[in-house]
Amino acid sequence: MQVNKRKIINDPVYGFINIPSELIFDLIQHPYFQRLRRIKQLGLTHLVYPGALHTRFHHSLGAMHLMQEAIAVLKMKGQKITHEEEEAVLIAILLHDAGHGPFSHALEHAIIKGSSHEDISGLIMQELNRNFNGRLETGIAIFQHKYPKKFLSQLVSSQLDMDRLDYLSRDSFFTGVSEGVIGTQRIIKMLNVSGGNLVVEEKGIYSIEKYIIARRIMYWQVYLHKTVLSAENMLIKILERAKYLTKEGKELFATPALSFFLKNQPGSIEAFNQPEILNHFTNLDDFDILASIKTWTNDPDKVLSSLCKRLIDRNLYRCVIQADAFDYFFIEDLKEKITSILQLKSEELIYFFISDTTSNYAYNIGHDKIFILSKDGKVNEIGAASDHLNISVLSKATTKHFICYPKDI
Amino acid sequence: MQVNKRKIINDPVYGFINIPSELIFDLIQHPYFQRLRRIKQLGLTHLVYPGALHTRFHHSLGAMHLMQEAIAVLKMKGQKITHEEEEAVLIAILLHDAGHGPFSHALEHAIIKGSSHEDISGLIMQELNRNFNGRLETGIAIFQHKYPKKFLSQLVSSQLDMDRLDYLSRDSFFTGVSEGVIGTQRIIKMLNVSGGNLVVEEKGIYSIEKYIIARRIMYWQVYLHKTVLSAENMLIKILERAKYLTKEGKELFATPALSFFLKNQPGSIEAFNQPEILNHFTNLDDFDILASIKTWTNDPDKVLSSLCKRLIDRNLYRCVIQADAFDYFFIEDLKEKITSILQLKSEELIYFFISDTTSNYAYNIGHDKIFILSKDGKVNEIGAASDHLNISVLSKATTKHFICYPKDI
Amino acid sequence: MQVNKRKIINDPVYGFINIPSELIFDLIQHPYFQRLRRIKQLGLTHLVYPGALHTRFHHSLGAMHLMQEAIAVLKMKGQKITHEEEEAVLIAILLHDAGHGPFSHALEHAIIKGSSHEDISGLIMQELNRNFNGRLETGIAIFQHKYPKKFLSQLVSSQLDMDRLDYLSRDSFFTGVSEGVIGTQRIIKMLNVSGGNLVVEEKGIYSIEKYIIARRIMYWQVYLHKTVLSAENMLIKILERAKYLTKEGKELFATPALSFFLKNQPGSIEAFNQPEILNHFTNLDDFDILASIKTWTNDPDKVLSSLCKRLIDRNLYRCVIQADAFDYFFIEDLKEKITSILQLKSEELIYFFISDTTSNYAYNIGHDKIFILSKDGKVNEIGAASDHLNISVLSKATTKHFICYPKDI
Amino acid sequence: MQVNKRKIINDPVYGFINIPSELIFDLIQHPYFQRLRRIKQLGLTHLVYPGALHTRFHHSLGAMHLMQEAIAVLKMKGQKITHEEEEAVLIAILLHDAGHGPFSHALEHAIIKGSSHEDISGLIMQELNRNFNGRLETGIAIFQHKYPKKFLSQLVSSQLDMDRLDYLSRDSFFTGVSEGVIGTQRIIKMLNVSGGNLVVEEKGIYSIEKYIIARRIMYWQVYLHKTVLSAENMLIKILERAKYLTKEGKELFATPALSFFLKNQPGSIEAFNQPEILNHFTNLDDFDILASIKTWTNDPDKVLSSLCKRLIDRNLYRCVIQADAFDYFFIEDLKEKITSILQLKSEELIYFFISDTTSNYAYNIGHDKIFILSKDGKVNEIGAASDHLNISVLSKATTKHFICYPKDI
Questions:
Q1: What is the C-alpha radius of gyration for chain A, rounded to an integer number of angstroms?
Q2: Nearest in space to D350 (alpha carbons), one of D402, D295, D404, D289
Q3: Residue A391 has what pLDDT?
Q4: Which of C86 and C365 is assigned the larger pLDDT?
């Protein structure tokens, strides 16, 4: 029986992923984790990069795999990590994304207002901890950065955690954007601990530089690609319209889980203390959203059906993105044109004209830093240690302005 | 405007795929083709190989890409292929899978009885031909093996067509099963035409041998993997139960497209002449099925909800597979045990005990053959040309017997 | 100091190779092992596959890397392997090719008659054992199949050893022949020990089948490629002519190590007990041979200079290869033509007309077998366990006849 | 006959390389080009990255392959390029490195003083032009930037030429340093011509940024790796000592080609007008150097034999590299220590203590620039077009100081 749980999973990115313990096998088997099979890692990015259909499930397993490697490296370098701590840090990374909703970031605030997916992951881990008789205590402490050995929490979330290492590699692999390839294996081999903090040995500095650049490139080439921005904003608008119509008393076709959230809008993380909300949330995934949208393409509400038809047929809004804010009169003219051509009521314009900003950080100075350990034992922040990168430039968020509207304008 | 339609698509398998003409761009944009984005190439295989989420959409583009390469090779070798023929053969391969229903092969006969996906692809091409003013005529002739230049049809479907070359490479890539890697590029470079037929030059013989072996290995390691067999048979059982309940007068939650097919069971390809059937079929995809199944996990019918819950939570039936037929008394005992433990009515057993056979051909002698062109111009069938393969062994279908039933027995 | 010896080496095939102990570091640093940097793994194969310049040095490190993985798998499965045994088996595989001479197999019997490279590896290991105060004892016992735990020796040399697994992967990588790609990682994960013998678990059977086929394909596509056959036979002829001229009293330009072997022809492995022979042998590598041949392109002996010029300028003999023996009269006519066109003396013809046979085994039934461990604990030979392979066909050596002669005939 | 010359070559980097014309086949077959098979692309880098044994021959073919792709892209975008121009630009890139001497850059100025390899490539092309009856005229004009269509020359040599694109990809592949992977295919697809100059379309800007960073990283991680610096400086010292001894009247063992250059030291490119010099140069390669060095390990001159023994046995000098100049007194102390421990005469110290600087540019502002073509047709230098890169930082050469000396000090 026990042997059966030591499974090996084929992974095109790393070759094979081992399931290291019976408890972890049982967590993977749990419906809360299996749900992640139905949540795409990159939302609607596959509309631009057709290979990008990989899921939070696969990413979470991948991050756990890298964590196994990182722990092995640190132990080989003399770091004391108990068997219990090892299992706990694997659990923490395995479940770090359990709180993601449908289409990952795309709908993060459209369904549940005011709660980040990390907060929800925390709640789900608490619930699992009850189911598994307290065996997730240490994992939760590590996840919440409350465990004495700081470096364990930093492996789970920091500027250089196993989450980021996996998603850069994996997103690069499935999109086919070779610009995002990073030296994951080398970075992990260069990890160490100094003063209780996770550090990178000096020899790994080039790989870290490359990692920071690769992340920045992936932001603009993939994560914030303008066609993806357009599709995901259209998806948000669809849900806004559906909620609006529901509020107006209209009964829309929807799966039970989605129906619940169209009618109820939990405003804070506390709401999850009601079992009903947690229950519906852990039943909600990409399939509820898309199956409902497909049905709404025939809805009598013209706004809703038009939006849904455009998204399903990939007749996406044109997206213009630029460094500076758009000219006020240009925007006003455009709005008038859209309203008139599509014969919209004025309150309907918000569904057909989207205007917002987006920004990214390749490296965030304010946040947890990446530290470099030099041969003489001194520890420096990457910005000070690197001769080649201008970290002050890279850590400045580049904000861009964008507008989206129907192509037929 | 025209320039916009010469798009380049990122593909992790081949790097980039070019859209070669405006007509092809318009076909790709058509909702009939966009639907293939929502049909997974390998049904439920991702329950075993989590990367295997790629779609018929991606595969069709990939096969079109290989076709472009193959045509370039043949033209370079002096074969006369007009511009119109080239576009037509690209259209034929692009649309060859347009008739696939949800989860590809898994449900091929569960929703529409008696029609193969190729037949339905043909009907959909006819419909598109009407929409595009007859511009698909030649493509359809090639697809239906009615065009004088036989080799063009053979590139679309034969023992060595661009369909098979793409799916072996792509399935191998996304599952991570390196045993399926084939020398696609080399095989294409070795293609030629002799006596009007597609042939492979003698130098490519090793690659063909490897291709035949790789196909056979992919069958047993991926396509007929016992856990996949189990999941897909459970999926079929779910739809059978849903149809049964519908027939009994029960109104099940379902998306409109699925609802239609639960109530109507077109028994032959002719049924597609009713626009309503074609319309519903081209709206049906993986999302309809899975969203409905998720809802049915709470259905009052215990058989249906139990089956659905097991599938959604990946609590799959145990599958035993063996070369010989199972012992009669062993089976009868097992059936009794299942009925008694699960407290089933006798007519419900068929949902909890599955018994069937499965088989594969690595190379099918009866069917269109693979021909090798030797340096002196003679053409031989691969079985005769190869010193190394025992084609008679490889072309014998290996039939295996399998049974599936709940693990808790 | 000790830390310094725990190096990591970049390897494009596996990512990174770890040097696991100080003793192994010192062995790698030894001139006997460093010499392998100057011996190409695949002789003159790079004349056909220009990437195939990798060395015995790199292969030996790679095989050691796989051995580390295999040992880790067996230990995880409960096999008892002491630290001393682990280091010993790593040493055995590391040094298994130390006895290879210039251009690996190409000149195996042209320089030293009657001794295989394995015999010479054994002698070199003995010599190193003396230098390292007996610390190689266990490694030598394993290498010579004299150690009680048979499976350790089988990991070093058998039908499925780390040597073969590495060279197939590595040769495939550097030649770019994707047909040779095997599932190394999966095979290693499926290794186990039963009855003291190395076995493969049943789940790995497809990978083993693929491995046997891949080996066979690599033989015909790479190892016995007719242009490589031609080049390597020309190389042998050059050395034969040089030895002949030396015997006739002619003083040829040659590096000291090569000069020694032109004048002295050790006829058996015992000759290596003379320190002079071992010393010269361990100084001889590809560079001695090629630098001398380059010089001989201007030698006054027309036969020697003509052969050398052809090889250096890659003006290689035409090679014809076929399943049946060549027709006697065809050969006699050809010989006459060559003699007359090139104006040769009759005793010179042997340098310009080569006729021989070559053969390969994909799987050798007579030799150590590959055993499959089924789930019920039974062990079967692969031929009995496989439904798909016709092992009796694959294990039959295919012998081919070939002739080589100048293209200008 | 003609058909025979349309060969396909296996390349692990790009899959296959086509030889596009008979003339190019004949140039590849010429001994001047075949010589490049015996010159490693990266000198002694393989002492650190054991896979880095690839040659100028392979690189030149690879660059020609990329050129074929680039020309196809430009033609598809409407650029007029005649068949003659196409063959000429392929010839120019094919032969651009024909003037490299042994170990590529490592010995660039150690054997022939004052002539760059580009100058010598030019002379060799002239010589080939005479052999091939003037058919290389246009290729030479393009190579020398004297052809009216500037962009053709820029494809051969500029900040973004096919030379750089190939060597970054190839060096990254064979070293296994994934940090150097660039999006070659994407960059080529984004090439265009504007105002007669080669430009990159705006969509390719991220790939260009990544390319600039990857180049910088490859400099520090591979090209200027301190162990490689040490080995290559030792190699230079060996040749200096050999020349010194020769000048002193000592007759060293050497192959004829090397012997010539030990005795004659052509001081300028004009010297190549003497056929003897060109003849010896085109016979000189890595094998002459290494075979001679191996022999010199037993030379009676202690300085020479000690240097050679250290290099052959990979007992390399320790190399210390730092941003600032070394402290004067530290250096003087070190020199004294070396002289005393090794019991050197004062004039021998230069062979055992090396002190120099090294520097790199990732992007050189002064030199030919990389231009970005925006959608509105404007052309900007990459530094102005990129939001993300601080080109002024990247284009500043980073100079580093290094010293090398025996480890036993």
A1: 23
A2: D404
A3: 63
A4: C86
- The pLDDT assigned to A215 comes to 86
Q: Does D188 touch chain A (CB under 8 A)?
A: no
Q: How confident is the model at residue D349 (pLDDT cuts 50, 70, 90)?
A: very high
Does C386 reach chain B within 8 Å, measured CB to CB? no
Look up the CATH number of the domain holding residue A158.
1.10.3210.10
Q: On the CB side of C344, how many CA atoms lie within 13 Å of its CA?
A: 21
Based on the fold, state whether residues B231 and B297 are members of the same structural domain: yes
Q: How far is the C-alpha of C184 from the C-alpha of C118, rounded, in Å?
A: 24
Tell me the per-residue pLDDT of A89-134, one tens digit each, with 9 for 90 and over. 999 999 999 999 999 887 877 787 778 889 999 999 999 999 999 9
Q: Which residues in chain D are closer than 8 Å to C51, comparing Cβ atoms?
A: 10-13, 54, 58, 174
CA pseudo-torsion sign B144, B149, B153, B156: negative
C160 and C43 fall within a common domain:
yes
- Do B150 and B55 reside in the same domain of the chain? yes
Residues of chain A with Cβ-Cβ distance to B312 below 8 Å are 31, 34
Whether residue C409 is contained in a domain is answered as no
* Percent of chain D scoring above 90 in pLDDT: 72
Low-confidence stretches of chain A (pLDDT < 70) are: 1-4, 6, 361-368, 387-396
The Cα–Cα gap between B370 and B159 comes to 6
Of residues B8, B16, B185, nearest to D15 (C-beta): B185
**Residue D264's CB: how many other CB atoms inside 10 A?**
14
Please give the pLDDT value at position C2: 36
pTM of the entire predicted model:
0.87
Residue B178 near chain C (CB below 8 Å): yes
Low-confidence ranges of chain B (pLDDT < 50): 1-3
Residue C190 lies in a domain: yes
Query: Residues of A with CB below 8 A from C14's CB?
Result: none
Domain span at residue C99 reads 3-224+362-397
Please spell the DSSP secondary structure of D312-367, one letter per residue: HTT-PPEEEEESSPPPHHHHHHHHHHHHHHTT--GGGGGGT-EEEEEEE-SS-SSS
Residue pair C241/C304 in contact (Cβ under 8 Å)? The answer is yes
Same domain, B189 and B291: no
User: Is residue C177 situated within a structural domain?
Assistant: yes
Per-residue pLDDT tens for A138-164?
999 999 999 999 999 999 999 999 999
Beta bridge partners of B11: B15
Do residues C380 and C355 both lie within one domain?
A: no
Domain count, chain C: 2
Indicate whether C329 belongs to any domain. yes
Q: At residue C108, does pLDDT exceed 90?
A: no
Tokens of residue B368, six digits: 């269109």
Q: State residue C216's pLDDT score.
A: 80
Q: How far is the alpha carbon of C98 from chain A, nearest alpha carbon, in Å?
A: 30
- In the chain, the amino acid numbered B324 is D
Chain B touched by D73 (CB under 8 Å): no
- The Cα B109–Cα B106 span in angstroms is 8
Tell me, yes or no, whether C8 and C133 share the same domain.
Answer: yes
> Quick one: pLDDT at residue B2?
36
Query: Could you count the other beta carbons within 10 Å of the beta carbon of residue B205?
Result: 24
B2 touches chain D (CB under 8 A): no
CA quadruple A150, A156, A157, A159: dihedral sign = positive
- List the CATH number of the domain containing C350: 1.20.1250.30
Of A347-351, C70-74, C194-198, C203-207, the one with minimum mean pLDDT is C203-207
Nearest to C206 among B182, B186, B220 (CB): B220
Contact yes or no for A266/A113 (Cβ under 8 A) = yes
Asked if C232 and C282 sit in the same domain, the reply is: yes
CA distance A226 to A238: 18
- Smallest Cα distance from C364 to chain B, Å: 14
Place of tokens 């992007």: D363
B367 and B389 in a single domain? The answer is yes
CA nearest neighbour of A294 among B102, B300, D115, B340: B102
